[in-house]
Amino acid sequence: MDAPLEQMLNLLLESERAGLVALKDLAAKAEQDELKEFLLASRDDEADNIAHLESLIREAGGTPSDQIGPFAAKMAALESVRDRLNLLARGQAWVAQKIEAALDLAPPSGSIHDFLQRMANHHRHEVEWGRAEIIRLMQSED
Known about the structure:
By secondary structure, the chain is mainly alpha-helical.
């Protein structure tokens, strides 16, 4: 595995770990059942992504990072669920951009490319859902 791809996959791995922690904490604060279920499902997706990324990095001859990205601490510093959802949506958009960058570095076919493509599609969906949820929460407070 070439160094730029390994670095990018490890950045994604660290980001997914941070997302896992952030989603677990946010789900514990969510009061609406629908929101809590979505956050817990997203947390489970992050755990799956972590396992897949670790495996892909190893299979390609790389070394998976053992770090957690800074996103979890940024989320924990926010008080309101709305603020956390807003940051979550921005974080998902950031990850989607990094996945696109990783796709540019990955071989044009194969397990790394296929996984990154699925991961990108899923993150795009979560970005849109997060935006819609923020709007819904803001309307319910009026």
